[in-house]
């Protein structure tokens, strides 16, 4: 994915405020050399941030007529307005080792025995994994096939097929769960309908009806 950045010469709070008033976003590019102060078109960046690939792939940044490979490292949004306040990028090349969150794409869930046969509820415990690899090996996403998921089964990190050269960073957690199966959905369907008791007759009404029947 490609985007265009422009060199930013002015710094400071006042300069950043003027940039935002002009529909620009201040940013920085660091790594592999001197940091570069940049600015980007706000609307183009705002809509790019809505795309999954902008967060999880190596990007091509055009700056001063030259192209550089970068990854998105951080961005800040306004507390309550849909405004991007600042953005950080890191320069990378094929030999740069990076650690970055990669989204999980779950497939075939509806065809699994757990869902199709046993009417279970599948819980996506996590939706992304922190992956360490070379920048050239960074996957756009990791596919998790749930087609064989059974009732009472859980999938763990070790069950996920990773791209070549990539490993998951778990920060000391041993083989954490990424998907679990609950029988809640099946139990709710099987639960009997509640019995509604007939309302009690009003006091004296029963005797009055008996008298009317005798007449």
Structure overview:
There is one protein chain. A 6-stranded mixed barrel has the order 1-3-2-6-5-4. The chain has a 4-stranded mixed sheet with strand order 10-7-9-12. The longest helix is centred in the last third of the chain and has 10 residues, at 205-214. The chain contains 6 helices and 13 strands. The N and C termini lie far apart (92 Å). It is flat. By secondary structure, the protein is α+β, with helices and mostly antiparallel strands. The chain has 2 domains: 2-92, Ribosomal Protein L25, Chain P, CATH 2.40.240.10; 98-190, Beta Complex (RNA Polymerase Alpha Subunit, Chain A, domain 2), CATH 2.170.120.
Features:
single chain, 215 residues, alpha+beta, Ribosomal Protein L25, Chain P, RNA Polymerase Alpha Subunit, Chain A, domain 2, 2 domains, six-stranded mixed beta barrel, four-stranded mixed sheet, 13 strands
* Oligomeric description of these chains: single chain
Helix content: 10-25%
Mean pLDDT figure: 86
In CATH terms, the superfamily of the largest domain is Ribosomal protein L25, C-terminal domain
Domain count, please report it.
2
Number of strands: 13
Low-confidence stretches: none
Secondary-structure arrangement, i.e. CATH architecture of the largest domain: Beta Complex
Distance between the termini: 92 Å
User: What value does the Rg take, in angstroms?
Assistant: 29 Å
What is the 3D form? flat
Helix and strand string, N-terminal first?
EHEEHHEEEEHEEEEEEHH
Strand order of the largest sheet: 1-3-2-6-5-4
Strand content: 35-45%
Structural class: alpha+beta
Q: Enter the CATH topology name of the largest domain.
A: RNA Polymerase Alpha Subunit, Chain A, domain 2
Main pleated-sheet profile: 6 strands, mixed, barrel
Number of helices: 6
């Amino acid at each position: 994915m490609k985007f265009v950045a422009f060199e930013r010469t002015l710094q400071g709070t006042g300069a950043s405020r003027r940039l935002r008033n002009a529909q620009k976003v201040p940013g920085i590019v660091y790594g592999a050399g001197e940091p570069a102060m940049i600015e980007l078109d706000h609307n183009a960046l705002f809509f790019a941030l809505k795309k999954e690939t902008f967060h999880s792939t190596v990007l091509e940044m055009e700056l001063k007529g030259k192209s550089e490979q970068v990854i998105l490292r951080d961005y800040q949004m306004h507390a309550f307005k849909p405004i991007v306040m600042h953005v950080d990028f890191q320069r990378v090349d094929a030999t740069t080792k990076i650690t970055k969150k990669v989204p999980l794409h779950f497939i075939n869930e509806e065809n699994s025995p757990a869902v199709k046969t046993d009417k279970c509820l599948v819980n996506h415990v996590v939706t992304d994994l922190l992956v360490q690899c070379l920048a050239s090996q960074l996957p756009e996403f990791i596919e998790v096939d749930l087609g064989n998921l059974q009732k009472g089964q859980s999938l763990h990190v070790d069950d996920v097929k990773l791209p070549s050269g990539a490993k998951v960073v778990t920060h000391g957690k041993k083989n954490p769960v990424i998907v679990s199966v609950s029988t809640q959905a099946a139990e709710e369907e099987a639960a009997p309908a509640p019995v509604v008791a007939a309302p009690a007759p009003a006091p004296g009404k029963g005797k009055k009806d008996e008298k009317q029947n005798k007449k």
